Fold this sequence. Notes:
alpha+beta, Diaminopimelate Epimerase, Chain A, domain 1, 2 domains, 7 helices
Amino acid sequence: MSARQYPFVQLDVFTSVPLQGNQLAVVSDARGLSDDELQKIAKEMNLSETTFIFPRDAETESREGVRVRIFTVQEELPFAGHPTLGTAWYLKQQRPNQSEIVLDLKVGRVPVCFEMRDGRLFGEMRQRDPQFGELHEHSEVAQALDMSLEDLDESLPIQTISTGLPFTIVALRKVETLTQLRVSWQQIAAYFRGRSSSAFFYFVARDGDWRLRARMIFYNGEDPATGSAAGCCAAWAVRYGVLGSDEQGVIEQGRDVRRPSFLYVRATKSGDTITNVRVGGHVMPVIDGKVTL
Length: 293
């Protein structure tokens, strides 16, 4: 049999500097690949996520969006933030006249709008309206993670929120505490075992009036940028007064793994309702190649 080849690009997402931000591989046309092959390619890429585009006819894509599937090294995800932004950015290069790219993900349609900002193409996705879930006791979280209760900002709730993928937002009092954080994935997994809420903590600390620093530890290490968690954090921040309604905030993530990332977030508050959650940033292309099977 002749070899099958599938072109791909590798992008750095939520950065305007190559070799920073969060890495993403995008396979531009995955038609003909089985589910098993998709998972194995993602494992071969060995990045936090790999996306696969399944082109369809223009009428279907206009109505439903571009079909995209997202895989980690061990599972398929219904939604993830930096894969959504990065894949939409890649598609925008092929469709320069479109100001909006709509992805058809497992979680549903996710629109990404583009504009020029600071002389570079800037993309902003609108995530699903947030679902506010379980509230967690500060003392229980501190005990599970071997932290002092004084390290946590008890003026802000620890809450599980989802805009497509659930995360539990944990606010720390000081940026220094966040930088010195020593929490293992085993501790996190043990805390969430048997609970109905998410299996991921998103640790944040205020770094100014509209700036936050963040870290996210998961089973594949520490994530340089977590766009899905940033959307949850935006909803949390606006609901509890860390950011004002529609105020542009910036989350810096990845400094502790030497891949600085900047995620621009905002959300709208109307009464007690949070809507219009948006997460944006820049993207840099770094690698162009082919998968040969």
